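Support reply, case 0932

Customer input (verbatim):
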Amino acid sequence: MIEFLETEGLVTRDKRGEIDVPDWVALLRRWSDDYGFVRNSNVTRWIAVRGLANLLSRVAESSVQYAVTGTLAAENWAPYAPARSAMIYVAHADHAAEQWNLREADAGANVMLAEPESDIVFARAKATRANVAIAAPSQVVVDLMTGPGRSPSEAEELIEWMVRNESSWRR
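Our regenerated output:
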């Protein structure tokens, strides 16, 4: 992977072999060419009957492995518009849906549960003040870049926040 990124001009190595990312925004944009929340996960659709605020309360209190992404995560750094739906990575969608009292949906879903190809989305998650695990800002940006509707605009807002606040999220 690193060799590929080097050929793309997205990373460099110093004499000791340490990797540097001179333009992380370009790296995120390139990542979004090959990765997508829906493309790279097994996604199921659900309805949180009592709304997203109630869902987040249930999520925060559960023992389910998860990481919130998309608009609900981005609003922790760069609020754009009220969230109308939830995008959540989970290890096991059916188990999470049962624990969170979600109903299966053929239409009108306001929750997408995604079983990711890689568990890195969980390893890099951080808890909010409300004890909700959210994916890393870089993951959230890429998920928004490849999302529907206003998601790409939300990604741009989050990127602007990330540029202004790089020292607070990039370590």
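We compared this against your earlier run and they match. Two observations from our side: Residues 145 and 152 are 4 Å apart (CA to CA). The longest strand covers residues 41-47. Please reopen the case if you see a mismatch on your end.
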